[in-house]
Design a protein that fits this description.
CATH class: Alpha Beta
Largest sheet: 7 strands, parallel
CATH superfamily: NAD(P)-binding Rossmann-like Domain
Radius of gyration: 18 Å
Number of helices: 7
Helix content: 40-55%
Strand order of the largest sheet: 3-2-1-4-5-6-7
Order of helices and strands: EHEHEHEHEHEHHE
Shape: globular
Bound molecules: nicotinamide-adenine-dinucleotide
Structural class: alpha/beta
Oligomer: single chain
Distance between the termini: 41 Å
CATH topology: Rossmann fold
Number of domains: 1
Amino acid sequence: MGRFDGKKALITGGARGQGRSHALRLAREGADVAILDIAAQVESVAYPTSTPEDLEATAAELEGFGGKVLAITCDVRDQTAVEAAVAEVEDAFGAIDIVLANAGVMASYGDKKHDMAAWDDSVAIMLNGVYYTLRAVTPGMIERGRGGAIVITGSTSSYIGVAYKPEMLNPGQMGYGAAKSGVLSLMRNFAMVLGKHGVRVNTVIPAGVATKMIRNEFFEADLAGDAPGGWMANVMEHGPVEPEEITNAVTWLCSDEARFVTGQSLAVDMGTMLL
Ligand SMILES: NC(=O)c1ccc[n+]([C@@H]2O[C@H](COP(=O)([O-])OP(=O)(O)OC[C@H]3O[C@@H](n4cnc5c(N)ncnc54)[C@H](O)[C@@H]3O)[C@@H](O)[C@H]2O)c1
């Protein structure tokens, strides 16, 4: 018996990184899983975003668990594409019970971070895209009456600033924090409306996670540059965690053990926000 037997999950940004880790855990524990991902480069982002090969490879891994799997190329900036993907998953699986609004980019490295496109993409992916996802799944989740769980991926940037010099007020960095703060409002309001339908809406707050978003030459150059001592520090004096650590929190939030938890942010940040 798996914790998620019979559950149907939809995960944005599921081709790699944290989304992939969440997808594998849910599938291992019995869920049918749909992964949505742009599987292409986001132009304003310095490091490589995912590829069609990433999406295919994760889908192949998921198939190994024996449940139904869907891999859908979908840019969450495109509301019509998000709605079509949600409809495709509902048709194929008959329901959606678990929604992880996880897709994201860090457009705050490299030369492109100074272009307003970096702001536009950050907000379009991590705020508009979350709204489109939640908006698209809501009518079906209410109508089917099966309850469910939605988890948005926030960031310590949902709560704290990171800018230690004027240059960090660039569009990429500011768009990231603005989007990650904005999703808290989406969480609260969707949680208020969906609560009586048994659908819970929460946010996970990771600090550093060892994915390609920060394991790239641009981020490492920034960290090795002029950051003051203690920038991005945490009370556990620990470096970035593996994606599975965030998956532990996300799957708990989606599980029956958290059945009365809604409208909450769960930080897996090693105490970053205490400093
Ligand atoms: N890595 C960290 O240190 C860290 C810390 C806090 C929060 N986060 C957040 O965690 C989430 C997952 O990031 P990750 O660490 O796994 O990085 P990642 O880059 O490995 O994964 C992000 C995924 O989102 C996809 N994506 C990007 N733009 C998209 C779009 N327009 N439409 C659909 N998919 C798109 C990417 O292709 C990629 O597969 C993001 O929301 C990120 O902001 C990451």
